[in-house]
Amino acid sequence: PETLPGPAPIPTGGPIQITMNTPYGEMIAPNQTRIVFVHVGKCAGSSVILALAQALTDRYVMYEMHTRTAGQIIRDTLASKDEDFIYLVTLRDPIARFVSAFNWDKHALYLAGRVKELVYRAHFEEFTDVDTLARALSSENSERAERALEFARFGHMGMGPAWYLPEDVVKALPLDRTFLCETENFARDLQRFAGLMDSRYLEQQIVVPREKADYKQSYENPEAVFGPPLSDLARRNLRILLDEDYRICRKLKRRFAPI
Asked: How far is it, in rounded angstroms, from Cα 238 to Cα 232?
């Protein structure tokens, strides 16, 4: 059986610099390795940041691309033709990512009183769990189906891999400088990336922290808050809804999956 590397020593030097959605014109780091981190929501991206913050030093700078203007900035870095950018992309099965996004947004936004738009508060009240939302996508009541579709584009739910990396952007990513970190193979992929960045991690194991994983345990009855597992109908509807995300995932894996 494969033996995991042993614990890594504490890095020497200052910590890696990490910023979010820095415009291309401000990405000035002449003496550092520049990492563009495409943080697709609900793909363990926060754990990637925590792990690399502990593992890498100030020889590196990481530009986190997450929501808001991230898509345009990614395009700007590619259009620049700079040949030193390294791209790291988080991925996850799109249906699993969508379920996680709904539950997180319900917990962190709706139940925390942070949803200001009345229409989205009404959506959370109508579609109380992800199974209800997904089944409503094929409702015979066309108005309910339209509300469900609108809600499915809210927050992290609507910003999957196809939002960050449409097909033309996938084609523009450099073959030799783009790396994937799949949630389903998280420890393996992050270890491989860290080893490419710092040869110490070819022999030493990177520390992989977990964040946000236990937030449901703060509820007395999590199933009452977040609902049952997906029904067959809900899963079928989400597979149709997320078809473009699945297509982009396939393209990314074909181009950049490790040999």
From this structure: 10
Instruction: State the residue for tokens 């996938």.
Output: 170
What's the whole-number mean pLDDT along residues 204-218?
A: 80
Q: What is the DSSP letter of 15?
A: B
Report the distance separating Cα 39 and Cα 45, nearest Å.
5
Q: Where are the alpha helices (DSSP H) in the chain?
A: 45-55, 70-79, 94-105, 118-126, 130-136, 142-152, 161-164, 167-172, 186-197, 222-226, 232-241, 243-256
- Write out the two tokens for 255: 């181009």
For residue 23, the 8-state DSSP code is -
pTM for the whole structure: 0.93
Distance CA 86, CA 177 (A): 5
Contact indicator for 90, 39 with CB cutoff of 8 Å: yes
Residue 77 · residue 131 · CB < 8 Å: no
- The 10s digit of each residue's pLDDT in 143-189 is 999 999 999 999 999 999 999 999 999 999 999 999 999 999 999 99
Q: Which two tokens stand for residue 79?
A: 């259009």
